[in-house]
Every structure is written in C-alpha cells, then in structure tokens.
Amino acid sequence: MKERFLRAARGERTDRPPVWLMRQAGRYLPEYRELRADNTFREAISTPDVAEEISLQPWKRFGVDGVVMYSDILVALEPLGLEYHIESGVGPVVENPIREPADRPVERTPIDESLDYVGELLTRLAADVGDEAAVIGFAGGPFTLASYAVAGRPSRSHVPVRGFRAAHPEAFADLLDTFADVVTDFVQYQVDHGADVVQLFDTYAGLLGPADYEEFIVPVHQRILESVDVPTIVFVRNMAGRLDQLRASGADVVGLDWTVDIGVARDILGDRPVQGNLDPSYLLGDPDFVAERTRDLIERAGSAGHILNLGHGIDRRTDPKAVEAFVKTAQSIDR
Predict the structure, then answer these.
(1) Tell me: the pLDDT tens digits for 220-231?
(2) What is the 3-state secondary structure (H, E, C) of the chain?
C-alpha cells in the first residue's frame, strides 16, 4: 500500500518491505502483449486509455505496492524537438542526433503541451489506486538522455557521448544542463499530476569515471532531485564502488543494481533508504529458487528503509509465476 511504500522511502521500519519491479508493466505479461498487438509503443504510451490499463496490469495481477506509469525515459526528448522512433531489433532511434555543438537544441515546448498525456495518465492512476499503492513517476537522467541523443541509437560502450565530452567539454556540460532543466520541470509536472514518488534513471552515467561523474553528474542530479517535495529515488548502474557519489545526489532512496551487496551498501550508506536489488536473471529460475533468493535479500537488507525491487528491469522472458513468487515472498514477511 502507499503508506508502507512512503514509510520505507523515509527510512522507517515497515511490517514488510514494499515491493514493485522496474519495467513491471511490460512484455512478460500475456495481457500486455495482447493489448500491444493493436498499438505501436509510441501509440501505447501516448494514449492515456491504453497506458492506464497497461500501468495497472501488474497491480491487478500481483498486488504490488507501487504502480509505475507506463512510459519511457525518452519522452523527455520531445519538448526539445528531438524526434525518435522504436526500430525493431535496434531499439530507440533518434532521428536528428546531436553530432556537433551547433546541433544542440536551443528551444523547447512547455511540458504541459508536449507531454500532457503523461499528466493525464498520472491523474488517472492516482484516482485508480487511491491509498492502495504509491503512484511512481520517473524520468531519464541527463547523461542517459544525452547518450541516446548523441549516438542516435543504443550504444553498448557509449563512446559517442563520452567522445563528445572529450571533444567538446563545454558543449557537453551545456547539453547536460539543457536536459537537467527539462527533467526538473518534468518531474515537478509529474508530482503536480499525482505522482507520490519519482525515480531518476540515469542508468548509463556510471560509465563515466569518478572525476567526470563528480564534475558533471552529481550537480545535475542534485538540481533535479531537490526540486520536488515527494520521495525521490536515483538509479545508476555500475556504481558498486562509488555509493558515496550516489548518496551525494540528494535522492531520498538509493537504487542499487545487482552487482552491489545490499548488506555492504547498508553499512556504507548508513540510514539512507535503499531500493533493490535482486538479479533480474534470478526470475528466470523456478518459483522456489526465486522465493529463496528473495527471502535472503530481504533478510540482508534489514527491516527499515528498504524497497524491494530488482537490480534492473525485468527480463521479457520472465514467467509471471516467478514474479508472483517474488512479490508473494515480500507479502509473506511479518515483522
């Protein structure tokens, strides 16, 4: 329920850990695939009737404590006039990528005009779930958005954006500031329309070295996350040895990927709440295996300030029975 989620986000002890899953509304569910058969991805996220139904599917099926809006991190490109589409076998493709400093967007459309469908979705979800679950909004972080915008498509190494930083350091900083401004307005817009919690996904920022992360990422994260008065969560992969930099973001809750030992993280982060961090591949195992690993994680995380989640998004090959085992294990805890 909502209050359990918010108490954990404040670092308080809870009767059991609240639970949700990143990408919980998605391709592993047969009801999702059935609904998506008649809608492209862009149509689905921008049509409130469709996005509302998809967002609620995991809540109706599993009773998770958080309902995350069905959307995508790249919607934050739209106010800047950066066009994108989803290409089968490739993923998101930005049609007008930023190759040189002169390509940087200089104008933008107000959030309430370009992303009004997100506001409508959140308003509906808040009415749908009431106090039974927390409504979770989210946005892509500046570096991750810049990675897509510069490379024009997914990049394993993210060399294009890292190379842009090397060749054009001032333009790189300006680009991150531009995205930070949009994301700041976007998360506030989400809160204004019913989000109880917002998560910042700067998934790829951990590929920057510690000095670059400190110089370029920490300040923009702080600006975004301190701009709203609801609980905030930050998620960056590959930060196992740099949890202090995640803590410096100012987020109320530190999201952990599966490469981090949650017990060690609790020692380093002190009383800072954490979210995570079961390896998503564990959900490809049978329900008994999932339940065993989930119970172990909950025990190591402790009874206060822990939101149970995966260490990244759920794999589309996951059997819903494994998700049920994950969620039911959390729900079986009685402190």
Answers:
(1) 999 999 999 999
(2) CHHHHHHHHCCCECCCCCECCCCCCCCCCHHHHHHHCCCCHHHHHHCHHHHHHHHHHHHHHHCCCEEECCCCHHHHHHHHCCCEEEECCCEEEECCCCCCHHHCCCCCCCHHHHCHHHHHHHHHHHHHHCCCCEEEEEEECHHHHHHHHHHCCCCCCCHHHHHHHHHCHHHHHHHHHHHHHHHHHHHHHHHHCCCCEEEEECHHHHHCCHHHHHHHHHHHHHHHHCCCCCCEEEECCCCCCCHHHHHCCCCCEEECCCCCCHHHHHHHHCCCCEEEEECHHHHHCCHHHHHHHHHHHHHHHCCECEEEEECCCCCCCCCHHHHHHHHHHHHHCCC
